[in-house]
Amino acid sequence: MYICICKAVTESQICEAIRSGACTRKAITDCLKVGTACGKCNREIRDLLRNAQSTSGDTRRPRAGREMPYGRYAGGGAEVGL
Predict the structure, then answer these.
(1) For residues 69 and 17, is the Cβ–Cβ distance under 8 A?
(2) Could you tell me how far CA 6 lies from the centroid of its own chain?
(3) 7 to each of 11, 34, 55, 81, how far by Cα in Å?
(4) CB-CB contact of 28 with 17 (8 Å)
(5) Secondary structure of the chain in the HEC alphabet?
(6) Which of 37, 39, 49, 81 has its CB 3.0 to 4.6 Å from that of 6, i.e. a possible disulfide?
(7) Per-residue pLDDT tens over the stretch 20-30
(8) Which CATH number fits domain 2-57: 1.10.530.10, 3.30.70.60, 1.10.10.1100, 1.10.10.10?
(9) Are the CB atoms for 31 and 68 separated by under 8 Å?
């Protein structure tokens, strides 16, 4: 199912980003560009993150410098290898 119609991002893509280490809405936005157009999908993204955290039992916030999927870092957004 599409979560972000504007950027054509599906629920499975967001869940894969979460499994790969994206643990904030910003990290998911940096990876998939979801939520950057109209913003109506941000609530669904938040709900998916909360569900993943409650399922895994991980309620910690990411630390600065923690590696995120697709070569991103939490808080910095810098590309790796450039």
Answers:
(1) yes
(2) 16
(3) 12, 6, 27, 26
(4) yes
(5) CEEECCCCEEHHHHHHHHHCCCCCHHHHHHHHCCCCCCCCCHHHHHHHHHHHHHHHCCCCCCCCCCEEHHHEECCCCCCCCC
(6) 37
(7) 999 999 999 99
(8) 1.10.10.1100
(9) yes
